[in-house]
Amino acid sequence: MPTEFAFRVSTYLSLALACACLGYAEWDLLPEVTGFMAVVLALLAVSFRYEGRIELSLARANALGLGIAVVGVAWLAVKLTTPATGLMANLSWPTNILPYAGPALMILIPAKLFRPKHVGDWWAMQGVGLAAVGLAAAMSDDEAFVVLLAAYLFFAVLSLTLFYYRRSGGYVDPLPTGPRVARPTVAFAHSNVNPDAPPPHRFAAGRSLRWIGYAVLLALPAYLLTPRGTIPAWGLASKRLEVGFNPEQTLDLNRTGDLQSSREEAFDVTATWLNGQPMDDLDPQSYWRGKAYRGYDQGRWVSGRLESPLHHEERLPRGGPDPADIWARAGRTPFALEIKARGRATWPVALSPVEWARGADSPAATLIRPDVLLPWSLQPDGTLAPAMNVTREWCRQVTVPPLEPGLGPGFAKTLDERTYGAWVAMLTSKVPNGIRPLAERLLRRWIDEGRLPADVLEADRPSLYRVAAAHREAVALAYLAHLTASDEYTYTTKLRRADNALDPVEDFLLNVKEGHCEWFAAGYVMLLRSVGVPCQFVLGFRGQEAVGDGRYEILQENAHAWAEVLVERTVGGRTELHWRTMDPTAGGESATAARGWWSNARQKGAEFVANYIFGYSPEKRRKAIAAGTAFAAEWWPVVPAVLAGWLAWRTRRRWWPATARPVPHPLAPDGGPPWFREYLTVTARLGLLPTTGQTPKEFAEAVAAALRGSPAGAPVAEVPAFLTSKFYRTRYGGLPLTDGESAEVRAAVARLLAAVRDLSVLAPAGV
């Protein structure tokens, strides 16, 4: 029948794409799923190639299914009794069972294909494919998966459309227990086995696309008006790794997978000079400090509590002088920042380093009630932070550019050596065993090469590789160059593990040697701690996007991790401690880095998926409505022109009648001789088309039988057989027609054409 090939292609493609969706979604959870997918796709190709010629009986199909079930149960038992690794290790019961359903769903599809099929089997296969796609959607939500999903939906709708025509026309076997319907020998354009059935279509892609378009037009307004709520959608959350800032959760480096970009806005920043003028030249690579982590255990960072090493007189007073006045008198130009949290960001951030002036009031404050600001206080580690029990959605910071880039304000070291020693001990602890030999080997090499002075180690304990306080900064810069400029380490958002038995940071430094900013910062901290340099892991943001008039947006994709190293400086005979920002990420593709057209296209696709499919929030709806309103206001004159063009296209046949084209025929794809092409056109006008595998002779016999059923067609019933014999002679025998034979076949075609002008030539009784 004319829809046979299109139906088979659309059906097999929809099933193959369902397997591809599931294989792509589960690859990080079950790497062996790619093997299942490859086998299933190969079986689909074999079944498509030999459709109807390789079939299993019902008993053999059931036996094969039983064997597959036994193998599947054995495989599942082995997997469940083996310690989970990778992302599967992060899933809890019963979620960790769900991914194992993927291979079972894949195997069900070819098991159904290699058996005699009735109408229920086609529904069952599409149901299995839909279940596979539904399972995949719970495990993946990136732009590549969305492309696979869209392709699956199109071919699934196309397959079901053609299935409707096949089933209505009796071309699909009914249920074995139901009434048998004879399959037609000839497909008619306006008369099938079911006289009320719609005509079969050669390829229903256009109609399927229209139905999809109608569904989208109906669903889109409702979707745009009903964004996601605050309750997170169900899914395998551990599967998706997204760039973002959420320090209220434990920072865990054990997770692996592909790190996805997020264009969700985290903070809105308004920068102004103290005279009220907008500040439009904020450093595009500014660091926004969020939270520091000091404790570490097997890939997990925790805050860690420090005892205060500060002198009491350095604590900021309440109600003291304005810090802006003190900075202005010192010749430094202060400016103000208003930072408002957006979306899921609730932890406070501040422009780093957070400068403060001794003896002055706090330069930062948090809005706790309307018109009530709570000043930030100086913390034991020499940084400013708000009280932990206040709302953190809005804060104000008055600051100045640092005297030295990346160097925080100095504070005096306490005279209590015990407290200071305990503090340094915390900042040099929890180092995995495998990292220490690497750090010591690098340090010894740099000393031997003369890159570091010979007295870099503490004189009383040189064998312990503990760096003297005066050389901490130089050593920190050496390790920084090793990670960022040695070409040994590479930045990537594809987070992988080489040896799950090792600590993740140890595995990164020794084996994997590629990762994102959190792994670089963690590796850097551990290298420094291995040689006694106190430091901490910091999470925040790097960079922002300028909006205009002193406004900036900090996006979740700007989230970044770096390290702060405790260095000592002596000023006027006074030893001070400073936190110095060190960013060890090698070649990081930051949010503001230049990209090529392909990277930009992928980025735009990822942004659309993240913002308007999986992360469509009330804030996104507000922006979408505002953007749509602005677009309509600018382009509204185009709408009448588009409508006029659409109406002209719809009515084009009134002015430009369509030219009749020869109807391609399965029996002769190239059309054959001119007289045979005309014969095929005549039979097509009669609604007579061959079934699958029908030869020209068999088709001629079917046409003759149909013609004999009509008084007007009976006189020309012998014409199809006559023309077919001549076609065989010229096509397969290679014998051209003589002039007399050519005239004879033309006359026969003319007789047939004259007969079909009577539209009643095929009476219903003769069909």
Detailed description of the structure:
The chain folds into four domains: 4-225, no CATH class; 251-606, no CATH class; 617-654, no CATH class; 674-766, no CATH class. The chain has 767 residues and is α+β, with helices and mostly antiparallel strands. It has a seven-stranded antiparallel beta sheet with strand order 11-10-14-8-4-21-20, with no helix packed on it. It has a six-stranded antiparallel beta sheet with strand order 9-5-19-22-23-15, covered by helices on one side. A three-stranded mixed beta sheet has the order 1-3-17, with no helix packed on it. The chain contains 21 helices and 23 strands. Helix 1 (4-26) runs antiparallel to helix 4 and helix 12 (504-512) crosses helix 13 (517-530). The longest helix has 26 residues, at 143-168. The protein is elongated, with a radius of gyration of 37 Å.
Whole-Å distance between the termini?
16 Å
The SS-based structural class is alpha+beta
Uncertain residue segments: 181-201, 230-235, 588-595, 762-767
Sheet with most strands: strand arrangement: 11-10-14-8-4-21-20
**Shape label:** elongated
**Would you report the number of β strands?**
23
Major β-sheet annotation? 7 strands, antiparallel
| Count of helical stretches | 21
Strand percentage, roughly? 5-15%
Number of domains: 4
Question: What proportion of the residues is helical, as a percent range?
Answer: 40-55%
Radius of gyration: 37 Å
Q: Give average pLDDT, whole number.
A: 77
